[in-house]
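Fold it.
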Amino acid sequence: MIPNPDKPSVTILATGGTIAGAADATTPSAGYRSGRISIADMLAAVPGIGGLAEITAEQISNVGSQDISFDIMIRLATRINALLADTDIHGVVVTHGTDTMEETAHFLNLTVNSAKPVVITGAMRPATAISADGPLNLYNAVAVAADDDAIGRGVLVVMNDRIHGAHSLTKTNTTSVETFISPINGLIGTVIYGQTRYFRWPFRKHTYQSDFSLTGVAALPRVDILYACADMSADLIHCSVKMGARGIVIAGDGNGNMNAATLTAAAEVAKQGIVVVRASRVPSGTVGRNVEVDDDALGLIASDELNPAKARILLMLALLKPRTPEEIQQLFQAY
């Protein structure tokens, strides 16, 4: 491709998801299959997108995001880093399913080592649906990736005219196009038919500021998430360790709490070198250190602003090299 000096160059990396989904029925239905449409066909359904940027596209995978693996995430981050090292590339767009979008966004926010825009988008309605939301989401994502004002803001997620930061956003509804919100830190901005407006910068370290690297990394350490509930079984902690988990994230009650038996089990495995992070099953809010739980005495980590899924991502990357519990806690406060 010969770059056009009048337009920025944007590469789209497609991974599948609802945005690439299609229904078999000819009548309105909620049923569909993810990952059935290629990125070339998706682009053909977006009028005027070529006016925003010089676009190239690659198919990384074509799966529903429930099947996004860490192998795919590592390949995706590696490819993004290679693309953004090219001075001719202004930014990258990733098309992705919404089920695990926040996890991939957080992973890329920690492992992409460039300040250039990386924008993830998807859809809540498949491409064949009445009033499909994918085409406009893709149009707006390319507009953000081509925008100089997006540089240095970390990995962004563009959905439903909103620009979210990877650190804060979370999915809140199973079917609504307004499913994503950023309850802790708020939106980064908005994008209306390609017109961008930014409200703020990320508050935490990300991308080019990150201390994490995937160089030489082929796989990530196992970290399990356990969901806290009334009368939770403490043996789940020991089962995870027995199956090879090097870390455990508790999706705790309230401020990262768990019952007394589970708390005792968590402290026991922490003494054995298993890192236990207290997150919360509550949709928003922070998990404070040494509030109801004496983390210092028990050797536990508080997730701060990260929900269980994102806490797991950060912990997996943290465990790629030896770190003390104090150093891991600092990572949760920094990222």
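The chain has two domains: 9-209, 223-334.
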